[in-house]
TrEMBL record:
Similarity comment: Belongs to the ParB family.
Region described as Disordered: 238-258
UniProt xrefs under SUPFAM superfamilies: KorB DNA-binding domain-like, ParB/Sulfiredoxin
Protein name: ParB/RepB/Spo0J family partition protein
Coiled-coil residues: none
Length: 304
C-alpha cells in the first residue's frame, strides 16, 4: 500500500508540475527567454528573433497586412502554437525554412524569442521545402500552384511522379496544373486574378489554336458561360477542320522585333491572333474572325 501511495504522490506532483509549466508558458511566451545556442539539430528551442533571417527562396512575396496584425494579436494572447522551422547557419544565426507568417507576426507582436524546430538543409532542400509549404496554402490560385510545380520540376530536378509524391497529388493532377502554363498570357492572368476558374481554363486548353482559345475566353467572360457551355464550345471547335495551314501563306522567315511586338499587342487587344506584314515601307494587318458573332465583337472594338 505504501508503494501505491508513493506512486500516487508522484503522479500528483508530476501533474502539478505540468500545470505550472503550461501556465508559465501561456503567460511568458511573449517575453525573452535565454537563448540556447547549444541545442542540437532536430530539437525545438526558443531562438531569439533577431538571430533569424528570412528565407531567400521564399516564393511568397506578399502578405496581407491586416491578417498579419490579427495573427500578431492572437500571438500576444496565446503565444506561438506551432513552431517555425529553421536551419542553423552559425552558432547564433539561423535561416527560416517555413513559417514566414508566424515569424513576421511574432515580430509585430514584439516577441523576443520564438519556438523553432532546428533542422539541417542545403539550398536545394530549402527551396523545395519553401515551395511545398507555399503550395499547401489554402488560398493559392491555380496559376500560382502551377508556377510552384514548374519551379519544383525545373529547379529541384524533380520528375512529375516525384513531385506528386512530395505534394500528395497524383500525376494527372500535376499535369493538369502544368498545362495551364501553356495558355495565352491573358487567360493565365484571368485565372490568377480569379476572373476565370480552373475548370474553364482546363476546358479551353483542349483547343490547340490560340486564336480559338482567346475567342472562347472572351466569350466566356462576356457572357458569363458555365464550364459545361465552354466544354460544348470546345467540342464544336474540335470538330471543325482548321484551314489556317492551307489558306494562309507562310510567314516571313524572320519578322522584325517591332513587328512582333505590334502583333502581340494587337492580338491581345482584339482577342485573336493578328498578323502584321510589312516590307519596311508598306504592309497590311490581318484580323481573322471565327464567326459572325466574333466579327461583330471586333467591329465593336474598332467602333465601326
Amino acid at each position: 500500500m505504501s508503494k501505491k501511495k508513493a506512486l500516487g504522490r508522484g503522479l500528483s506532483a508530476l501533474l502539478s508540475d505540468n500545470e505550472a509549466v503550461e501556465e508559465k508558458l501561456e503567460v511568458d511566451i511573449p517575453v525573452q527567454v535565454a537563448p540556447q545556442p547549444s541545442v542540437a539539430t532536430g530539437a525545438i528551442a526558443e531562438i531569439p528573433v533577431e538571430e533569424i533571417e528570412v528565407n531567400p527562396f521564399q516564393p511568397r512575396t506578399h502578405f496581407d497586412q491586416d491578417a498579419l496584425l490579427e495573427l500578431a494579436e492572437s500571438i500576444k494572447v496565446h503565444g506561438i502554437i506551432q513552431p517555425i522551422t529553421v536551419r542553423r547557419l552559425t552558432a547564433n544565426q539561423y535561416q527560416l525554412i517555413s513559417g514566414e507568417r508566424r515569424f513576421q507576426a511574432s515580430k509585430l507582436a514584439d516577441l523576443k524569442t520564438i519556438p523553432a524546430y532546428i533542422r539541417s538543409a542545403d539550398d536545394q532542400q530549402m527551396l523545395e521545402m519553401a515551395l511545398i509549404e507555399n503550395i499547401q496554402r489554402e488560398n493559392l490560385n491555380a496559376i500560382e500552384i502551377a508556377l510552384s510545380y514548374q519551379r519544383l520540376i525545373s529547379e529541384c530536378n524533380l520528375k512529375q511522379d516525384e513531385l506528386g509524391e512530395r505534394v500528395g497529388k497524383n500525376r494527372a493532377t500535376v499535369t493538369n496544373y502544368l498545362r495551364l502554363l501553356k495558355l495565352p498570357p491573358d487567360i493565365q492572368i484571368a485565372v490568377r486574378d480569379n476572373r476565370l476558374s480552373m475548370g474553364h481554363a482546363r476546358a479551353i486548353i483542349n483547343v490547340e489554336n490560340p486564336d480559338q482559345q482567346l475567342y472562347i475566353f472572351k466569350k466566356t467572360l462576356n457572357e458569363d458561360l458555365s464550364v459545361r457551355k465552354v466544354e460544348e464550345l470546345v467540342r464544336e471547335f474540335s470538330n471543325k477542320k482548321t484551314e489556317e495551314s492551307t489558306s494562309s501563306p507562310a510567314p516571313a522567315a524572320s519578322a522584325s522585333k517591332e513587328i512582333s511586338q505590334l502583333q502581340s499587342r494587337l492580338s491581345s487587344h482584339f482577342g485573336t491572333r493578328v498578323v502584321v506584314k510589312s516590307d519596311g515601307k508598306k504592309g497590311d494587318i490581318k484580323i481573322p474572325f471565327l464567326s459572325v458573332e466574333d466579327l461583330n465583337r471586333i467591329l465593336d472594338i474598332l467602333k465601326v
